[in-house]
Specification:
Order of helices and strands: HHEEEHEHEHEEEHHEH
Shape: globular
Strand order of the largest sheet: 5-4-3-7-8
Amino acid sequence: MAIVASLGLIAAAFFNLDFLMGGKPKQLLRLDTPQAVSSPADEGLEFSAPGLDGRSIDLSSYRGNPVIVDFWATWCGPCRKQIPELVALYKKYNRTRGLVIIGVSCDLIQGDGAKAVAPFVEEFQINYPIALADERLVDSMGVEAIPTTLFVGPDGKLVSRIVGAGHAGEITDSARQLLDGAKPPVSPSKPDDINGHVVDISVVR
């Protein structure tokens, strides 16, 4: 037993000597190891942001309704392409089917700020509420490019997502699937032609 104890002391001495000479002991536990976190889709999407009138727009206040959340900006060409389709959808289904559309402007992150939004809303005759996003909101919703359109079920959970301005009628097809409770087909996360269909806001921030 004495021999075993002596060997243990010698090993400990060599370990401490190596550490004092600049060596690093083997790390047994990494405290910065990424941990699994729940996805917003697991618990239901939620955000709160100021509207153009200064009042808060809370996604949770629309629980019980199908909701489309569209992230866009006045300077984004692909966003301009699909906004008329959203305007038409809101006009057709808001009163008859309870469809809610929230446009989330990213002009505070990149562009001329809130002052550019109101004239744009008037020009495009946007008939649904507009919220103003900051970087925190965009990051929390996992939005890296615009337009990004989220389709949220009455339970607040994400049903589908379209990144980029796709083909004509794609937004309408996804809206009808949302209203009918149908499961949409899996769509690509981002178009291949990034310059033609989507603007990467993770680069410009």
